[in-house]
Amino acid sequence: MNDNSKKMDEPTMKAEIQHIVDEFGNIMRYYSSNTAAETTRPPHEHDSKEKHLLTRPLQRKLSNLVQVSLGEANSGSRLARLARSLGERIAHEMLVSWQPPHEMTQRLWAAVRARGCQFLGPAVQEEALRLILLALEDGSSLSRKVLVLFVVQKLAGKYPKVSKTSVGHVVQLLYRASCFKLEKRDAESSLMQLKDELRNYDALRRQHDAQLVQIAQEAGVRLSPEHWSSLLYGDLAHKSHMQSIIDKMQTPASFLQAVDELTALLARSEIPEEVHALREELDLLANVDPASERAAWEDVLRFLSAAQRSLRAWISLQLTEWMPRSLHESSHNLWYKTSLCRDFQLHKRCPRGDACNFAHSRDELERFRARSKKLLRQRDEARKDGSLELSPDEENQQAMFDMLDSGKPPLLHRSPSFDPTGDPVVPFTDGIAVPAFGPISRTKKGWRHDALSPVESE
């Protein structure tokens, strides 16, 4: 079509463009419906039945595109920009689907720590931010030390192990987000004053979240809005909020970076040939000038054709039984909520809330163990028929789950990813067959733990 488009007259090109736009409308209506999602979903999506083939952001991109009338002024340039936006969204969703969520989470927190910042978990972080706002919302100017001490003292009653260091890292995160006006003093530390426009929680929290998204982008970490909402808030109610932040932080260079990252991932993956061919289509769309007010109809046709082929390939990939992490999920995903949360068992509450990686009830424990064992059986069948080669770690996982089925007591853990105290993690058990371990303390020779009796550990 690209070669023939130059030979077409303008009415013919417009007819072809309208045909592609109509197809986008049909795709949006069909694959966004519950019926389509349920009847065409591949077998490996058994644990996410509510997920449609087209995500809400992708549906919005298509909706904006099909509403353009070819008779409008500058409709060509608008269609070109929307085709680029659609291609960028497809590239982003492919990247997110290829990368194990836990691996991305680890990389995110490593990048945050490397910048001298810290996230203490959804509940603790929110309280820390509200206390910082309480101290500075009236326009007061405080030194970093005084501000940190104030927050730590206020948190001490509910979170006694939150340290000055960890709260100082939260303040550093806000400093990186340009939330403060600084007043330098001779021979003394600078005073910090919260900017006028950030003296309410919603504005401060948005600036805080945007800084975390920026750190993730700098580290090459791609997360879905649902993943962001779960990490930062412990629920899925804030995914629209996170999506708006992600969209606002996109730049013309972001699309090219996404295409390069996707190309690198595809080079390491055994995937269908047509997916590799997407590089040419996405490259074309990434080089569309989003600021241009004029576009030739033949260029518009090329851009829409590239977006059409990209969308077809993405849908086709989701409809096949082959998907990137269908069997090669990370070990963390297999162990997700397959052991009980130490905080919830000992204190009947968990600072991580719904974002906790460990189970808060027996029903939840058994449900996720059954899910993991089902995936392991699929791996075993694929290994036997020669369609999948497992790593030594993956081979050992089945044996570990068999041990859990043998009647031994489940392990209780505290997640290192969300532990606000910074203490090392030591396994606990809720049974009496295996001794539990007590509080951890630091000695001159290193870390030690004090043994407790099984009765004391409960």
Question: How are the SSEs ordered, and which strands pair?
Answer:
Blueprint: H1 10-31, H2 34-40, H3 56-66, H4 75-98, H5 101-114, H6 122-136, E1 141-143, H7 144-155, H8 164-176, E2 180-185, E3 188-194, H9 201-218, H10 225-233, H11 239-248, H12 252-267, H13 273-276, H14 278-286, H15 297-319, H16 331-335, E4 340-341, H17 342-347, H18 362-384, H19 392-405, E5 411-413, E6 428-429, E7 436-443, E8 446-452, H20 454-457
Parallel strand pairs: 4-5
Antiparallel strand pairs: 1-3, 2-3, 5-6, 7-8
Helix pairs in contact: 1-3, 1-15, 3-4, 4-12, 4-14, 4-15, 6-7, 7-8, 9-11, 10-11, 12-14, 14-15
Describe this structure in words.
- It is a single chain.
- The protein has 458 residues and is mainly alpha-helical.
- A hairpin with a 2-residue loop joins strand 2 (180-185) and strand 3 (188-194).
- The longest helix is centred in the first third of the chain and has 24 residues, at 75-98.
- The protein is globular, with a radius of gyration of 26 Å.
- The strands form three sheets. Strands 1-3-2 form a three-stranded antiparallel beta sheet.
- The protein has helices spanning 10-31, 34-40, 56-66, 75-98, 101-114, 122-136, 144-155, 164-176, 201-218, 225-233, 239-248, 252-267, 273-276, 278-286, 297-319, 331-335, 342-347, 362-384, 392-405, 454-457, and strands spanning 141-143, 180-185, 188-194, 340-341, 411-413, 428-429, 436-443, 446-452.
